[in-house]
Amino acid sequence: MRKVIAMEFITLDGVVQGPSSPDEDRSGGFENGGWHAPHTRDEAFMRRMVSAIDEAGGFLLGRGTYELFAAHWPKASPDEQVLARPLNTKPKYVASTTLTAPLAWQRSTLLGHDVAESVAALKREAGGDLLAIGSPELVRSLLMHGLVDELRLMIDPVVVGGGKRLFADDGALRNLRLVDSAVTTTGAIMTTYAPQEMKS
Fold this sequence. Notes:
Layout: E1 4-11, H1 43-55, E2 58-62, H2 63-72, H3 81-89, E3 92-95, E4 108-110, H4 115-124, E5 130-133, H5 136-144, E6 150-156, E7 176-183, E8 189-195
Parallel strand pairs: 1-5, 1-6, 2-3, 2-5, 3-4
Antiparallel strand pairs: 6-8, 7-8
């Protein structure tokens, strides 16, 4: 059974909105986009990104992340091919209630209406692990359904004061176990967590 690995960039105050650029996601009046960009210059971060994407058997994407990626990676520069090649050629499974099949980006498939059941079915298939990149609404849903096996957070040393958060405000207690951590040259902390069941 393959794993679902969720990889997120997150601020100290728990925000995941608009990490890459000022115009990535301005919904809700968010004005602090691009907060993650200064932390991408770290070599350890880039090695971890390249490794995660290269080792993935496929990718889980929400609509917003899918549209950003589909617009960029097929036209990526020669310098970006180390990331673009696996992103363009490996299977991509997209959660959306507004997109319609067939999807334009090669090897992209819409998940069924019941996303949790669709992802659970994918986990039962043979193949490499599934990597969810960004896509906070999708990852939040997968967390709530107990479908995330690893949560890889890059916690940037920045507070943005508001915006979309990764974790649901649902009062549920979810215990995690720290599997790995490292500090980058920019002061960000790269962590890997796994779910941990409470002992009775």
